[in-house]
Amino acid sequence: MPRKTQSASSLLTGDDLRQMFIVARSSLELNVSSINALNVFPVPDGDTGTNMLLTLKAVDEGLAGLESAGAGVLAQAIARGTLMGARGNSGVILSQFFHGWAQGLAGVDTFGGREMARALQRAADASYKAVANPVEGTILTVVKEAARGAGEAAAGGELNPVVVWERACQAARKALAETPDLLPVLKEAGVVDAGGLGLVAIMEGMRCYLCGEEVSPLNVDIGRVSPTAVYLTATEDKEYGYCTQFLLQGSGLDVDTMRGRMAAMADSTVVVGDTTAIKVHAHTYDPGALISYAVSVGSITQVKIDNIDRQHQEFLEGHRERQRAQVPLGVVAVAAGDGILQVLRGLGAVDIVPGGQTMNPSVKDIVDHVAQATAAQVILLPNNPNIVGTAQQAASVSPKPLHVVPTRSIPQGVAALLAFNPDLDAATNLARMQEAAAGVRSGEVTRAVRATSVGGVSVRQGDAIAMLDDKLVAAAATSLEALEKLCLGAAPAHGALITLYWGGSTQEQEAQEAADRLRSCCPGVEVEVVHGGQPHYDYLVSIE
Known about the structure:
Blueprint: H1 14-30, H2 32-36, H3 48-57, H4 60-63, H5 71-85, H6 88-104, H7 113-130, H8 139-155, H9 161-182, H10 184-189, H11 194-211, H12 229-235, E1 242-249, H13 255-265, E2 267-273, E3 277-284, H14 287-295, E4 299-307, H15 308-322, E5 327-335, H16 338-346, E6 351-354, H17 363-372, E7 375-381, H18 385-397, E8 402-404, H19 410-419, H20 426-438, E9 441-447, E10 452-454, E11 457-459, E12 464-468, E13 471-476, H21 479-490, E14 497-502, H22 508-521, E15 526-531, E16 539-543
Parallel strand pairs: 5-6, 5-7, 7-8, 14-15
Antiparallel strand pairs: 1-3, 1-4, 2-3, 9-12, 9-16, 10-11, 12-13, 14-16
């Protein structure tokens, strides 16, 4: 729980440090999508925010059993946990931030403003030392300026650790805003540094705990969150080799020697650790040379090698897609299946949240996709009864305005999307889309996973079963028989349209034969066949 602001003479304890870390992680998690969106460097070796968050989450096991430990012991556990769990360049540097922090608090059970400033300075020193060729305008600059802000407060006689930390946060935010002026690639892309934003999120979380405030998404100007065309063109033909990461363990390891050797063998090297464990991150055309050297002095685990030439091309393609202009109002839909996604995108959905039956997205999944959607406001189509509640919860916490049309099926979602008019306001669209969705009857054909009896329909395990508007209406030996019973039970009017989205285990020829059968048994009804590619369901059926 957040604590009240400390008095000038108060000292922070190990429990305070634990809570600072926990709230810092919550703050980082709230801002992960914004941080990830800033990955504009030519070598997009992983999502910065995700890597930083996973690095912090690795600490949980190390903190177990240390409930009454002093600040120094807690800081050492955090440092060790982040080192062992460090992901990507940003995660490795972050682990060194906490390594330096632990050095500054070594041997103390409580700490005040002076110790806090000292710990931040050690954190900055360790972060710079971790990188073979430090670059200003990155997370390194942010931590350096944070340490300077804390140091100036302490040197001026400030003893209150809360005030010292607030000064550090102010300096960090100012440094973050200035990162584009220090690093041309950021200025070209029009954004601040992603790692720096992650560190500010962490520090702001700690400040919230110390000041008794609730954490929330950062209110900082992070830039356009999309590379310019000039930047993309300039980096298109660059080559980067392989992002190589591993954990080296042994005894008597010399971190400085290994850092020098690996800096001569690779680029973007970050080598950190101690005499028993060293975390390595590097970019090289020959990962084998790095690994061979490492195994000559110890044993390696957590090996991860990514082709960053390929990542870079995927990055360019993805960001070119995101260069589309923001629209005032857009639709995001939840769906699964290549064909379904193509249909929804073709009808104008600005983003798709992967999900559906057996794979319901979380509130965070939805909020993250809404945050990244190229629309100032979003209308969400959950397209599944199990997702409607999650969608409504997401709307209550989404920083971006989010409205929900409670569609319960893909056919309802398609109908709602067809009724969407981007030239109208949100309220008008919501009314139109809900009305359109309500005018569609939805059916599904799948296989029963167990025997049951519902509403007078007896089902054996493995039967093909048909659902109409969320109600079990038929069971049969084959999907075709179940589909026919479904459509006959719906009693479509003359001139009605039945659309079959085929997926699951159905093949295209089977779907075409099913359409012919429906035209015969339901005369006067038009039948269309669309590849849905949805999992589990042989057919999704729209009747309108």
